[in-house]
Design a protein that fits this description.
Arc Repressor Mutant, subunit A; mainly alpha; 207 residues
């Protein structure tokens, strides 16, 4: 990819993050990339291809870190959690665009994107199913979706929003706490169902 194409993608990344895909024009991207709007068409067919290019970067960032499945499913889950946390912390704008603007991806580029996303989801679902074989496939899929949203949530933080010093570590620990729920019996009582307010000890014990 040429330096000009990289400049266009980085400009689009900033603008899509600030205004969303629908709030940005090709001319806006050109101005921020230091080229005319018409010059962008020498590199990209339009705004749709630029968004697809950013989504490709997200997919590549995840897939490059996955490696081969580990024989120990717990180690595999740990690796997957770290991949998502690192994406949210190190590539926050890309992760936010990916979460927020997926419905804006045109059909022309959706099939390839969805194919790669399924590879990632299937990898995480397979690892969780090996860890929690008593859980149904539907429960596992729901857990995968919930974990992904949790782990990427830091990318949706407003630019001026407060942030924990070790946001990645906190999200990783929260994800592990969520996984503990899958090990509990389905009819296990929640601390919220208690008639009295839980103590810190109660919460820590149950989580």
């Amino acid at each position: 990819m040429s330096s000009r194409e990289q400049a266009i993608l980085r400009a689009a990344e900033r603008l899509f993050f600030d205004r969303s895909f629908d709030g940005v024009s090709v001319d806006d991207i050109g101005r921020h990339a230091g080229v005319s709007g018409s010059a962008i068409y020498r590199h990209f067919s339009g705004k749709d291809e630029i968004l697809a290019g950013l989504f490709d970067e997200v997919m590549e960032a995840i897939l490059a870190r996955l490696g081969e499945p580990d024989e120990d499913p717990r180690a595999d889950v740990e690796r997957l959690l770290r991949v998502y946390v690192d994406l949210a912390v190190q590539h926050d704008k890309l992760a936010a665009i990916w979460l927020r603007d997926q419905r804006s991806l045109s059909e022309k580029y959706r099939r390839d994107h969805d194919h790669r996303q399924r590879r990632i989801n299937d990898r995480m679902a397979g690892a969780l199913q090996r860890c929690f074989p008593e859980r149904t496939p539907d429960e596992i899929v729901t857990a995968v979706r919930g974990l992904q949203i949790l782990l990427l949530s830091e990318s949706l933080r407003p630019p001026s929003g407060r942030r924990a010093p070790d946001a990645g570590g906190l999200l990783h620990a929260m994800a592990l706490g969520c996984l503990a729920v899958l090990a509990q019996p389905r009819n296990a009582s929640s601390w919220r169902s208690s008639s009295s307010s839980p103590t810190d000890h109660d919460v820590n014990h149950r989580v």
